[in-house]
Every structure is written in C-alpha cells, then in structure tokens.
Amino acid sequence: MASLSDSSFAAISEYFHRVSGIRLTASKRALVLSRLQRLALDQGIGDLDEFVRLLVKGQLPAGLQVSVVDKLTTNETYFFREPAHFEDLRRRIAERQGSEEFRIWSAASSSGEEAYSIAMVLADKLGSAAWRIHGTDLSTAVVESARQGLYSLERARNVPESYLKRFCLRGEGPYEGQLLIDRSLRERVEFQCANLMKELPALPMFDVIFLRNVLIYFENGPKADIVRRVIGRLKPEGVLYTGHAESLAGLNLPLVSRAPAVYQHA
Ligand SMILES: C[S@@+](CC[C@H](N)C(=O)[O-])C[C@H]1O[C@@H](n2cnc3c(N)ncnc32)[C@H](O)[C@@H]1O
C-alpha cells in the first residue's frame, strides 16, 4: 500500500492550488492518495513521494500534469440538477422579447449534463430560433467526454420522459444501456477548456450564466475574483445562477439577488 508523507501532501496541495485555485484540505488526503497512485504506477513510479517531487519540479511530461489536475477535480454533476433554475429559465424565455441569438454559458460544465439540460430546454422553448450554449471546464478529460454527449441511461433519470424521446437516442448493440444526445443539440453546444482562475478565452456576452457547484471549492478572495471575471461576460440584463449551497454573501460584488441563487448586475 503506497503512502504519502505530510510534506508531499503539502506540496501537492500547494501545486493544485497554484494550478486550479482550489485548496485540498486534510480530509482529502486519502482521496489524493488513491487517485494519484494509478497515475504514478503507470509511469513505473511506485513511490508517491517521488512522483510528487517530480511533479512539483515540472519534471513530469506535460500530458501527465494535465492528468493530475483531471484526477484531483471533483466532477460530480447530473441532468437537471437544482431544477428551480430550469423553471426560472423557462419563465425568462417565455417573457423574452427580440430575436437576437440567445446565449448561455455553463461555466464549470464538467461532463456536459448541465449544458445539455439547458440545450433541451432551449430546443423545447426556442426551437429553431437562434440560440447557442458554451460549456467550459478546467479538466480536459471532462471536456472531451462532454463533447461526445454519450451517457449511461442511469444518469438520465431526471430527464423528463418527453425530452428523452425528443432529444436523446437510445443506444443499441455495443451502446446498449447508453444514450446519445441528439446531433441537433450537440451542434448548438460547444465545449472548451478554461480555467476560471485565469484570464478567460475569447467568449461572447451571455444572456444567462450557470456558475454552479464550483465556487464551493474556493476561499472568499478567489471566489470573488472568479465571479467578477465571469460576470464580465454577462449582458446588462443577464442572469447568473450559482449553486444553492454556495453563498456570495460578504464578497462585495456588484450583483443583486433576485431569488435564491439567482443574481443580476446591480
Ligand atoms: C462539481 S462540478 C459542477 C458541475 C456543474 N456545474 C453542476 O453544477 O452540476 C465542478 C466542476 O468545476 C470544475 N472546476 C474546478 N476548478 C475550476 C477552475 N479553476 N476553472 C474551471 N473549472 C473548474 C471541475 O473540473 C468540475 O468539473
């Protein structure tokens, strides 16, 4: 059984904080150990302390550094998570005026369930009108899987039956037990890597931004920086959704709360 010394845990925490902005607390130690063990063994390195030493000195291949970040991020997500936001979105679309392209950003999109849930609502409510969704995430692994739009059927239990019929293809043969998001939706959803802690890639202005269940990993300073950076891409009348378990209280942000976890520019 591999072990991780106190100083190696401190070093990997520091490294991950530098790269992602997220602090790994002591409670994450067993998780770090189990997630890095496989990667280290694949490199023929049985000693995790040695693996961490090479990592922080930048002496591991670049691709492997990306894999470490992929392993240490928490990507839990599911379709139609926190349904109140989808109700709010439906209502706003119904009240919307004008025919400009309607754009939504899933700003920590993980494996894509959030972005495709939004796409189903837009396809339902806006049909063939102009709309587009961008999904971004720090982890290259989840961005790649989001692009595929292929999920196990079990993960689709919150997808309304009518949406399953209209927007998902049930896998057959080798794809039995899986569903594929219909091409008409996939074509309107674009995924790319972006680190919310760093300068953002070129992105358009958005009507709605989903920034959910990612702020929870940050302390107040970086959390406020992320929100400021993200709302720089929000249109004047736009809406920001955060996770219901996340608080923006005390961050002194130029936002007003419209409902729980629903914000607009002040
Ligand atoms: C728990 S998932 C939330 C997914 C989705 N928004 C939801 O609410 O279901 C958090 C995601 O944030 C991403 N993440 C963590 N730090 C990030 C950063 N600095 N920049 C961009 N994404 C980040 C992780 O890779 C992970 O996929």
TrEMBL record:
One of its GO terms (biological process) is methylation. It is an enzyme of class 2 (transferase). It catalyses: L-glutamyl-[protein] + S-adenosyl-L-methionine = [protein]-L-glutamate 5-O-methyl ester + S-adenosyl-L-homocysteine. One of its GO terms (molecular function) is methyltransferase activity. The keyword NAD does not apply. Keywords: Methyltransferase, S-adenosyl-L-methionine, Transferase. Its EC number is 2.1.1.80. InterPro entries: Bact_Chemotaxis_MeTrfase, Chemotaxis_MeTrfase_CheR, CheR_C, CheR_MeTrfase, CheR_N, CheR_N_sf, SAM-dependent_MTases_sf. Residues 1-266 form the CheR-type methyltransferase domain. PANTHER family: CHEMOTAXIS PROTEIN METHYLTRANSFERASE (PTHR24422:SF26). Methylation of the membrane-bound methyl-accepting chemotaxis proteins (MCP) to form gamma-glutamyl methyl ester residues in MCP. This is Chemotaxis protein methyltransferase.
